[in-house]
Design a protein that fits this description.
The structure is a single chain. The chain has 12 helices and 30 strands. It is α+β, with helices and mostly antiparallel strands. The chain has one domain: TolB, C-terminal domain (Neuraminidase). A hairpin with a 4-residue loop joins strand 18 and strand 19. The longest helix has 11 residues. It binds MU-OXO-diiron and calcium ion (CA) (2 copies). The site of one calcium ion (CA) has 6 residues, from loops.
């Protein structure tokens, strides 16, 4: 692909890099509709044929609608710079970016140093989990004391360095001099990434607060990590830092997460590729290996230009993956290959080294969702690759789950599958196993490590189905169906934009769901339908085939989570470029909705401040406290407005720069959230 295309990044999405000829989800939905003879000009007729085809739970067709209660009144769409929740609910703001949690506990100031940032909560909160302080059982334990583990997806340099900014900066620009970048700014940026582990406790007044605790920890873009699974020790991850290919420094762009059945946390590495550059050329053209090119490693400057830090420190220079040595162990040509994985963290052991679990594949991992573990059965985890036309995967462990001995080692051996959706509502899981099917040495796959490092290329060869940007997944605890958000797919080429399907230029997104054959998550076949087609009233359908209403219109579903009662929580991320504008204007600021998956009812529960996305949701075990993240408030501020001091949001402080933060949501009557 041309260098220019690699270097164009849209907010929340990687540059499109899937050039394979595989079908994509829109084609399949259209084919399924055409086959049924219902694909007419109107969306209503078109969607009635396949939406909600499996809405009723198994064996429940004769019974009245059922499912969890939604006991709150919907809130309207909002463009206000504040958080709105239903009547009877209260909101507290907790751990905004910069909150001191460990070490010297330095107070937040706009001009904190890079070292101070490593002792404070990072920027841009995303996926998150509440671990009750007892630590043994993910479903039981304290609802008033626990470890909150929060991902920090990316940074906004203009707010991170507000005190130092000398000129107007756009969202993704860095303040850089002619002679390179300020190394302390680079350090601060790396330390604002990663994960925060922070003990929080509910006080007598009902408010939650940070508790100093030896388990409080920052994991950053510099923390040493172990590489595990089939890629460990392979030539693909040999670097100057780790000549034997077993270690790497840091995790980046941690979007959503997963919680293992043995109560550890997995942080996803999503849009990591743009953090690297590779300037290798042949005949004056970019010459990138497929394990860089297929993921969008840049050929010009990297996203934050860390490799340009003055002083040439090795930890910063490594973001230039160009060949400079005679051998892979002498340079950082392989550094990008150590990213794109799921990273396991034990929040209860602050000395533990995070582990990159390579058997789960390498792509733009949005997150990971585990099926409920069953004694003696394999561990199963689903994960989406969030970029246009990428795929949905699942991992099935080779060894069975045994509660007494289960550990992360279960994730090092197993089969990674990629999904193929058939037009008739069925689907299959295709194994990404070296030597099976087309994954042969003749086709460039000589080992399982090579398959995994090139997960996308392997999935291309298998004929996986190209999706509309898979984001979060969730498994219904009641009936085991798997739900995934497909956030949008505004395809760029005129040819693709002229498709006959009214959703061909899919700005609004949808939620797909499937049931594994025999309700066995390790099965290789499934049946699917669409739960909801998001959009404005005139261009949307709920699970009953009815248009969405003022109570629930939404666009760009992203975060997704089932609570213990099977309420489905849906969070939106309309990107900064389109939020509150044009066709996305009717949806206002990003929001969170709550759905009953059995009746198809959806109701808006929360709206956030200006410019942010709502992402990350979990409750305490008693479901009476909910944590939700507000990421990148004020991101819609233009460079000109930023220069003039006109910020569209000053949430949550009401002054200074806007800061990502966690919301603590409770009911004034102490009841279950949403019920
Ligand atoms: Fe990090 Fe796909 O959102
Ligand atoms: Ca997301
Ligand atoms: Ca998104």
């Amino acid at each position: 692909m041309a260098a220019r295309e690699h270097d164009m990044i849209e907010p929340g999405d990687e540059p499109m890099s899937n050039l394979s000829a595989n079908p994509y989800f829109g084609d399949i939905a259209a084919a399924r509709l055409s086959r049924r003879g219902v694909l007419a000009g109107s969306l209503g007729a078109a969607l009635a044929g396949f939406i909600g085809a499996g809405a009723a739970p198994r064996g429940a067709t004769a019974r009245p609608a059922e499912g969890p209660s939604l006991g709150f009144r919907a809130v309207p769409v909002s463009e206000a710079d504040t958080v709105v929740v239903p009547e009877g609910y209260a909101v507290q703001v907790l751990i905004p970016w910069g909150t001191p949690i460990t070490g010297d506990m330095p107070a937040w100031r706009p001009d904190n140093t890079g070292a101070e940032q490593a002792m404070q909560v990072g920027m841009h909160h995303d996926g998150m989990h509440f671990f009750p302080i007892e630590g043994q059982d993910p479903h039981r334990g304290s609802s008033e004391d626990g470890l909150l583990v929060v991902n920090h997806e990316y940074i906004e340099p203009r707010f991170l360095h507000a005190a130092a900014a000398e000129r107007p900066l756009g969202t993704d620009e860095v303040p850089a001099g002619e002679d390179g970048r300020d190394p302390d700014q680079v350090l601060k940026e790396l330390n604002a990434h990663g994960i925060s582990v922070v003990r929080i406790r509910k006080g007598a007044d009902g408010r939650w607060a940070v508790v100093p605790d030896p388990r409080n920890r920052r994991i950053t873009g510099l923390t040493e990590m172990e590489i595990a699974g089939p890629v460990r020790g392979s030539p693909f991850v040999r670097t100057r830092y780790s000549p034997d290919g077993t270690r790497v420094r840091g995790t980046l762009n941690n979007c959503a997460h997963g919680v293992t059945p043995w109560n550890t946390y997995l942080a996803a590495e999503e849009n990591w590729a743009g953090y690297f550059r590779n300037g290798d050329q042949q005949d004056q053209k970019p010459d990138l290996p497929r394990e860089h090119a297929r993921y969008g490693v840049r050929t010009g400057r990297s996203r934050y230009r860390w490799e340009e830090a003055r002083g040439g420190e090795d930890a910063f220079r490594r973001f230039d993956a160009s060949r400079t040595g005679a051998d892979a162990a002498e340079d950082y040509r392989n550094e990008p290959n150590a990213f794109g994985w799921m990273v396991e963290i034990d929040p209860f052991d602050p000395r533990s080294r995070p582990v990159k679990r390579t058997a789960l594949g390498r792509f733009a991992h949005e997150g990971v969702i585990f099926a409920p573990a069953r004694e003696g059965r394999p561990v199963v985890a689903y994960s989406g690759d969030d970029a246009r036309f990428e795929y949905i995967y699942k991992f099935v462990s080779a060894r069975p789950y045994q509660r007494a001995t289960a550990s992360g080692a279960l994730l090092d051996e197993g089969t990674l599958y990629v999904a193929r959706f058939h037009p008739d509502g069925s689907g299959e899981w295709l194994p990404l196993v070296q030597g099976v099917g087309p994954l042969t040495p003749a086709n460039g796959f000589r080992s399982q490590a090579e398959v995994l490092v090139n997960t996308r290329a392997a999935a291309d060869l298998l004929g996986a189905t190209k999706m509309d940007r898979p984001e979060w997944g969730a498994v219904d605890p009641r009936d085991g169906r798997v739900y995934f958000t497909l956030t949008n797919n505004t395809r760029r080429t005129p040819e693709q934009a002229e498709g006959p399907n009214p959703r061909a230029q899919n700005r609004f997104g949808q939620i797909v769901r499937w049931r594994e054959a025999d309700d066995d998550h390790a099965a290789t076949r499934f049946t699917w339908d669409l739960f909801v087609i998001a959009g404005p009233q005139e261009d949307s359908r709920d699970a009953n085939g009815a248009p969405l209403t003022a109570e629930n219109i939404f666009a760009c579903p992203d975060g997704l989570w089932f609570d213990a009662d099977s309420r489905l929580w849906i969070q939106t991320d309309i990107g900064e470029a389109e939020q509150n504008r044009g066709p996305l204007a009717p949806f206002g600021n990003n929001q969170m909705l709550c759905a009953n998956p059995y009746t198809g009812e959806i109701r808006r529960f929360l709206t956030g401040p200006v410019g942010q996305e709502i992402t990350g949701v979990v409750t305490t075990p008693d479901q009476r406290t909910m944590f939700v993240n507000v990421q990148h408030p004020g991101a819609t501020t233009t460079a000109e407005d930023f220069a003039a001091g006109r910020l569209v949001s000053r949430w949550p402080d009401g002054q200074g720069v806007p800061r990502s933060a966690t919301l603590v949501i409770t009911r004034q009557d102490g009841g279950v959230i949403g019920a």
